[in-house]
Amino acid sequence: MALRWPGIHTQQEVPTCDVGGVRQNTEVIGIRGFWSALPTEGRWLLSTVAIQTLGRGLTLPFTIIYLHEVRGFDLGLSGGLMSLIAIVGLIVTGPGGTLIDRFGARKILLIGLAAMIAGCTLLAFATHPAVAAVALVLIGVNFGVSWPGFNALIAAVVQGDLRQQYFGVNFALVNLGIGVGGIIGGFYIDVDSPETFTVIFLVDAISCLVPVALLLGPLRHVRTQAAHNDDAPPVGGYREILRQPAVLWLTLLTFLAMFIGYGQLEAGFPAYARQVAEVSTRVVGLAFAVNTAVIVLLQFIVLRRISGHRRTRVMWVMAAVWAVAWLALGFAGLLPDSVAAAIGVLAFMGIFAFGETLLQPTVPAIYNDLASDHNRGRYNAINSAAFQGGAITGPIAAGLLLDWGLNEVFIIIMVVSCVGIGVLAAALERRIPASANGVPQPETASADAAPEQR
Question: Which tens digits make up the pLDDT trace of 292-349?
């Protein structure tokens, strides 16, 4: 398939770590053209994403089942242990971003992956809560550095509009790997056979060797931190970055999107589906399968449609789509234990997934277009912290509201929050540089303007 990429230079002409101030005006035609436009390092990264996340998909849905039903820890303790991953990840994210800017993403990611391998291996044989706690803390360390680390690595390898496309395709492949892993794990594990859980945690540890091999091999020369002789002055710490209006509004938007989005997928949605809509666990499981399928099937199509459009406007559409999704789930709650309720639950996940395909390519791209090589790790750490903050507080709010029987209030809060995302996106649009908002810039634009745009 023929494809023109205006403004995109060959890999030899553009250094992989040069993020520059000039945006590329690209036109997405198809997967083959996207693949051919990627530099070699980008192809290495993307070609292994599904394999890397397959192991995580094997264990992610079943860890609490393993702790409670296989190792015999009570449910409250098991939930507390599971929370260690998010808590440690949130604590580690800030220092991790600073270390990425100082030493480079590659070194910090290797440390995180080593912690992940040790954690998964230890968890496979954890018969005591203290051992499980240490294992989950190690896994949390990796979670804290992997998001800002890999995002910084991606931003160093791909540029311009191609970067937005990359984040979207990467998101689809992550979902594919986790989804396939979850299906395989569901068929393989048996609570009466503890050794099956030992196997999946060891496979999760082994899957981490794939990115380790990439970082020590094909990606060993990729540099994310600024060169010591760079003429641009280093940017200050987190406080100075967050004082920038664009970053502050973007961080608030990210937190709210995670609060009503991923913060509810693991708690609010399944709880509402079971307790209010009264659908079976099979319907809930099928809903997650629908979510993965929609993302995998639609992500590249969505990327073609949003290319060249303002990212803040894409967020408006995403907010509207998520509002419709929550209304569909609210409809399911009005007709409990019925076919209509099941349809409403499945529709929620399908519509919500469509919104995800709009969110995931845009937000990481904005953060990285606002950043420079001096502070890219910290920008991505702020993104990660906002994500994790929403993912932690979302389930707490959902649990309280649904436990108090405020089912309608729960849906109303979700819909109103979608409106809030639209308001925040409008505020962000007035404060963000056009180059970071996905507006194509003339190829002849001077790169000297880049520091001012950031």
Answer: 899 989 998 998 889 888 999 999 999 999 999 999 999 999 999 999 999 999 999 9
Which residues is 193 bridged to in the sheet? 190
Single pTM value for the model: 0.79
- At a CB cut-off of 8 Å and minimum separation 6, what does 134 contact? 119, 122
Alpha helices in 67-159 (DSSP H): 75-103, 105-124, 129-157
pLDDT tens-digit map of 130-179: 999 999 999 999 999 998 999 999 888 888 778 888 888 888 888 888 88
Which listed CATH number (1.20.1250.20, 1.10.443.10, 1.10.10.60, 2.115.10.20) goes with 237-439? 1.20.1250.20
* Strand-pair partners of 190: 193
Exposure string of 80-111, with b = 16+ CB inside 10 Å and e = fewer, is bbbebbbbbbbbbbbebbbbbbeebbbbbbbb
C-alpha span between 278 and 120 (Å, rounded): 35
C-alpha to C-alpha distance for 312 and 428, rounded to whole angstroms: 7
